[in-house]
Design a protein that fits this description.
Structural class: alpha+beta
CATH topology of the domain at 5-70 and 99-178 and 269-353: FAD/NAD(P)-binding domain
CATH architecture of the domain at 5-70 and 99-178 and 269-353: 3-Layer(bba) Sandwich
Largest sheet: 8 strands, mixed
Shape: globular
Helix content: 25-40%
CATH superfamily of the domain at 5-70 and 99-178 and 269-353: FAD/NAD(P)-binding domain
Bound molecules: arabino-flavin-adenine dinucleotide, P-hydroxybenzoic acid
CATH class of the domain at 5-70 and 99-178 and 269-353: Alpha Beta
Radius of gyration: 21 Å
Length: 390
């Protein structure tokens, strides 16, 4: 089999790029390790930057997102028993975010690939890229007992943090930067009316919490838990009781509780791999970078990688212009590191750090007080949260 671009990973990054390139007549194949049902069973991101939403529309996948997604012009921060609002629309120069779950977005991308007859292979086992530092790379994968070879001109590593692509870059070339946080997020999805029309980020002495949503009948909540906790340690009742303890009384009083339809603990880490290109291999999305979800930058960081690669391949194949491909890693990393900074900053400001000394605790409270006392500080928060320009 021969294609122009072989994409490893059928998550949002891989699917979005394959869709955009297909619409430009560039032939791709997506090799996904798991079944479609497995990929769509994951509960992940909930907030889309306006840049991501624009890319979904350009990929002809935005119709349901625009119909069912909710435009949010701001969010609340709960601290010291009160709610303070971050007016994104006012302080970002008129921008907002779209609340639409990654699961649904991925479903829309799969359906769009099917509609165009895009090649997406599920249950592709032992996917392995070869000769990525030559002009004739290829990728093999196993389907049952059969090993299949895909000859291609370029390989995209969109296979997430635990994928094979990043590990295919020689250790003496790859530089990795990482910060692991001493806690995780216990997340619950419940078929209940959201406690608030907008998201509420909670800074509390017992730990961080987040009230989010997927629709007006589907709520998503998180509480900060120690890394030693296991999801089986937390009954639904224990989760709701702890969330209520961290919410302002007026909010806790109106919280609708119900059975969890998904419950999981996600560790928090900041991670960047450089460079994001090696020969004919390009890394995109979680394969190259991870952020703590506090700033809702995870999925959104993948969007600019895809945008840059999309335009670079169109320039290469249509005009023989390789400047986009040659400049990809540097350009993508410049925006990635700004998303890393914002996600780290939001995480440090809102979470409880058990080993902190009283002086550092005062600095943390002052950071939050400064945000709500300075228009300049509010503008910095807002422009990062709605998404810096691509
Ligand atoms: P993904 O990991 O989504 O997709 C990679 C795909 O590659 C997967 O389908 C995987 O099965 C496949 N794959 C892996 N190895 C392979 C191999 N060897 N061969 C073939 N295929 C392979 N972001 C937010 O903004 N907000 C959140 O609240 C949030 N919560 C998250 C919770 C969790 C538990 C996790 C893990 C991430 C969360 N994220 C969140 C970040 C998340 O949304 C990612 O940014 C997003 O999934 C990135 O998309 P991809 O780059 O496509 O990577
Ligand atoms: C979510 O809805 O899952 C969500 C929203 C905002 C975040 C993190 C997660 O910062």
């Amino acid at each position: 089999m021969k294609v122009q671009v072989c994409i490893i990973g059928g998550g949002p990054s891989g699917l979005m790029l394959s869709q955009l390139l297909h619409l430009q007549g560039i032939e791709t194949i997506v090799l996904e390790k798991y079944s479609r049902e497995h990929v769509l069973s994951r509960i992940r991101a909930g907030v889309l930057e306006h840049g991501f939403a624009k890319l979904m529309r350009e990929a002809q996948c935005g119709e349901r997102m625009d119909r069912e997604g909710e435009i949010h012009d701001g969010f609340e921060i709960a601290h010291d028993g009160v709610l303070d609002r971050v007016d994104l629309h006012k302080y970002s120069g008129g921008n907002s975010v779209l609340v639409y779950g990654q699961t649904e977005l991925t479903r829309d991308l799969y359906e769009a690939r099917d509609k165009l007859g895009g090649k997406v292979v599920h249950n592709a086992e032992d996917v392995t890229p070869y000769d990525i530092n030559t002009d004739k790379p290829y990728v093999t994968y196993r389907s049952g007992e059969e090993t299949i070879r895909v000859d291609c001109e370029y390989v995209i590593g969109a296979d997430g943090f635990h994928g094979v692509s990043r590990k295919s870059i020689p250790k003496d070339v790859l530089r990795e930067y990482e910060k692991v946080y001493p806690f995780g997020w216990l997340g619950v999805l419940s078929r209940t009316k959201p406690v608030n029309p907008e998201l509420i980020y909670v800074k509390h002495e017992r730990g961080f919490a987040l009230c989010s949503l997927r629709s007006q009948v589907l709520s998503r909540y998180y509480i900060q838990v120690p890394l030693t906790d296991k999801v089986e340690d937390w009954s639904d009742d224990a989760f709701w009781a702890e969330l209520k303890r961290r919410l302002p009384e007026s909010v806790a009083a109106r919280l609708m509780t119900g059975p969890s339809i998904e419950k999981s603990i996600a560790p928090l880490r900041s991670f960047v791999a450089e460079p994001m290109r090696y020969g004919r291999l390009f890394l995109a999305g979680d394969a190259a970078h991870i952020v703590p979800p506090t700033g809702a930058r995870g999925l959104n960081s993948a969007a600019s990688d895809i945008y840059y690669l999309y335009h670079a391949f169109v320039a290469h194949y249509k005009k023989g212009d390789d400047s986009g491909l040659d400049g990809y890693s540097q350009k993508a990393l410049a925006r990635i590191w700004k998303a890393q900074r914002f996600s780290w900053w939001m995480t440090m400001m809102l979470h409880r750090f058990p080993d902190r000394n009283p002086y550092e605790d005062k600095l943390q409270s002052t950071e939050l007080a400064y945000v709500f006392s300075s228009e300049a500080a509010m503008r910095v928060l807002a422009e990062n949260y709605v998404g810096l320009p691509f």
